[in-house]
DNA sequence: TCCTTTACGTTGAAGCTTCAAGTACTGTAG
DNA sequence: CTACAGTACTTGAAGCTTCAACGTAAAGGA
């Protein structure tokens, strides 16, 4: 990805410049290692994957601690399929219940009392880990930069996904 | 993770402030969606996972297109186990060969000619995707910010992992 | 009403990752 | 030279995610 390997494609590819290369490597390191570290901590301390924890956390903050599956999937950055499998697992653990919606198709995921307890119990150690892994290394200015940059990145990501989905 | 659920732990937990919360959500969205988008593109266009692509790319840029497995694992942000499984798969595809190191224990992963061709062929579309998913949304200043922030984040991540590994 | 399209969700299989255990080789201390 | 420890890597099983296919119910015409 560094040099211009020519002659393979119709038009010469626009490669990344040096700064973009650097940024890209950091981004890859971040998106590979951070999830791994979060999973390690939660697996060790709460027997949860980070995705499971996040689903429970999102539910715990939703009005009435319930959310439609498709909405929950979007908020948890997951496919409906992935969410459905995980909700099944969380249901077996007694932390979530599925509930049909009356006037409409679709169903709700409802956090149970036991599920709420689970999040509340797991949260402190998890927050400590998040601090140790991320925020202890950033001053307030950097946190603000991260918000701005993060928003820009996620927004572009969504645009890029929308564009890429259409053409192919 | 938003409110202070008190009374569960010995000492009251230091929760994240509002800005950290925001930054954290963006970071999670980013680390969840970006890898998924990269995998989708590479799976569609090159029948590769992003991790496989990255391994091949790292090898293609290494001196003599070869690297010791443990070194490659570190550069690819992966465990040795994960890498070993993937190298086995890449070997079966004919893109990589394992080669024992003479004077020392350990072995090298060597990129074959066919493996090199594979990266070169896959790169252009991948770079286009990276552009569309990331860099088309950032100006030069933001790219520089991303480098700085990314380095800070990865560095803290490594410190946090080192600390967390020890205590348990 | 009937047909078609679209949104919502589930499911099983295939593939990838992690985890724990195991092999082998290399220093190093006694 | 023998025992011990550490490094490098492999392996199989278990678990998670993705993919593709399917079922179902609402909405939109004709």
From TrEMBL, chains A, B:
InterPro entries cross-referenced by the UniProt entry: HTH_MarR-typ, MarR/SlyA-like, WH-like_DNA-bd_sf, WH_DNA-bd_sf
Cited Gene3D superfamilies: Winged helix-like DNA-binding domain superfamily/Winged helix DNA-binding domain (1.10.10.10)
Protein name, as recorded: MarR family winged helix-turn-helix transcriptional regulator
Taxonomic classification: Bacteria, Bacillati, Actinomycetota, Actinomycetes, Mycobacteriales
Domain of life: Bacteria
Organism of derivation: Rhodococcus olei
Span of domain HTH marR-type: 20-155
């Amino acid at each position: 990805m560094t040099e211009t390997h020519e002659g393979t494609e119709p038009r010469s590819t626009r490669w990344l410049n040096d700064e973009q290369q650097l940024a890209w490597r950091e981004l890859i390191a971040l998106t590979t290692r951070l999830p791994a570290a979060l999973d390690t901590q939660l697996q060790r301390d709460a027997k949860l994957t980070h995705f499971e924890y996040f689903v429970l956390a999102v539910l715990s903050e939703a009005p009435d601690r319930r959310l439609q599956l498709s909405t929950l999937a979007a908020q948890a950055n997951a496919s409906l399929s992935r969410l459905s499998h995980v909700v099944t697992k969380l249901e077996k653990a007694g932390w979530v219940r599925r509930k049909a919606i009356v006037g409409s198709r679709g169903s709700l995921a409802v956090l149970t009392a036991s599920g709420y307890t689970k999040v509340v119990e797991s949260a402190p150690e998890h927050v400590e880990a998040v601090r140790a892994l991320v925020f202890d290394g950033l001053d307030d200015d950097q946190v603000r930069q991260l918000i701005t940059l993060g928003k820009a990145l996620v927004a572009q990501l969504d645009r890029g996904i929308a564009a890429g989905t259409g053409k192919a």
